[in-house]
Structures are given as C-alpha cells and as structure tokens.
Amino acid sequence: MQTPATGQRSYQPLPEILRELQTENIELQREALEKLAFYFIQQLGLEFKVWRKRGDMLEKSEVNAIAESAYPIFSRWQIHCKNAPDYKIFEDDIAIEVGLSMQLKSNVIFVVTTGLFRRKALSYVGTIIGKTNLTIITIDREDLQALVTSPQALVDILKEKARRTMELRKVAVI
Questions:
Q1: How far apart are CA 132 and CA 168, in angstroms?
Q2: Fewer CB within 10 Å, N- or C-terminus of the chain?
C-alpha cells in the first residue's frame, strides 16, 4: 500500500518521519508532512479521502488531509499537520480549521505541530469543544516525542483529550 500523494510505503516509523521533517530539503519536508498525516490516519484506523489544498500559495510547512471512518459511526476528520518547530500555533490557525469544518462537514479537527500551541489557541479549542459538537484534538512536539518513545502512548493521549472533552461538555441534570 502506498501513500496517496508520495507513492511511498504507507507505513514509516514516526522517528524516521520526524527526522525527515528536520532536513533542509523542502520537498523532502513536504513528503514527510504527508507521511505524518498518513501515519495518524493509519494509527487511528481512518480511511484517507483527499489532500485539501489551501489556495495558490500552499505553504511548504503544512499539509491538510481529509479522512473518514464508518466505525462505530460515521466521522469525518480534518487533519492539519504543520512543521514549524519554532512556531506556536495561534488561535487564528485553529479558527480557520473550525470555519472550514462547516464547509467540509467534519466532526473532528486533528491538528499536529512540530512546535507548540499558544495558550490562547488552547483556550479557544476548549471554548469550541464546550459550545459545539466539534471535537478538536491537538498534538504538539511534546506529544510527538512521547509517541517516539512509546507508540502506544497515542491511546493514552487520546483518552486524556477525550476526558477533557467530556468535562467541557458536561450535561446538566434536569
């Protein structure tokens, strides 16, 4: 099986992908970002649908994919991967994905960065999760390092994010 865009083997270990993201070769970085998106699609048991383009000035430091799952119920995922180790994701970066979710009819936004998220961006994620039916999952460089150490850590990371979502969406007993 091959990745849709690169034609490479569909599975590559995460440490290799992260090493490729650190190269000076822009095209190799771009392919590595696609591999990173595809890595998570596979790990989450999703079905790749399409790469999402972002205008004529598509950034070399990010890729966007759409994936779906029919198990246990239908869900559509926006996967946004950004290779910017020295960059902190802003609230606006998340807001763009939230806005696109209406057009794409997504249930889940999955944002992965080799950098970090600004506090205001994470606060905004919490607000959106608490006030809408949209789930937003954030993975930063610290999470990626935990996954390099233990690929099974993805289950723990996702359980923690699901627990936080449940807290933000508590239903008042009537």
A1: 10
A2: C
